Amino acid sequence: MDDEPKKYYNKDNIFVEGLDFIDYIFIQHYKSDYHKVHLIEEIVEKCQRENKKYKSVRDGEVIIENIRG
Questions:
Q1: Adjacent-strand bridge partners of 14
Q2: What is the number of other CB atoms lying within 10 angstroms of the CB of residue 31?
Q3: How far is CA 24 from the centre of its chain?
Q4: Which end of the chain has less neighbouring CB within 10 Å, N or C?
Q5: pLDDT of the chain, 69 residues: tens digit per residue
Q6: CB-based contacts of 30: which residues, under 8 Å, 6+ apart?
Q7: Quick one: how many helices (H) and strands (E) in the chain?
């Protein structure tokens, strides 16, 4: 929901993805007083329609994952 993601370059690639620590779409500002809340609702609805795995959080909430490599 923030500005367009920064792109990190090397001579052969553009990196715009995460580190693959989680296997779901993380949706922040869900049901919050965020000025783009209508976009967040659309993203959640699209994930539900397309059976995409996601987790959403409201402002002030966190998700804690125990990641072992």
A1: 9
A2: 13
A3: 8
A4: C
A5: 555 555 555 555 555 456 677 888 888 889 988 788 888 899 899 999 999 999 999 999 999 888 775
A6: 40, 44, 56, 57, 58
A7: 1, 4
Say how many residues make up the chain.
69
Judging by DSSP bridges, how do beta strands 54-56 and 25-27 pair with one another? parallel
Residue 23, both tokens: 């296997």
Q: Are 63 and 37 in contact (CB under 8 A)?
A: no
The C-alpha atoms of residue 55 and residue 69 are separated, in whole angstroms, by 21
Q: What is the pLDDT of residue 46?
A: 92
pTM of the model: 0.65
The partner residues of 8 in beta bridges, in order of sequence, read 15
Contacts of residue 53, defined as CB under 8 A and 6 or more positions apart, other chains included, come to 23, 24, 25, 47
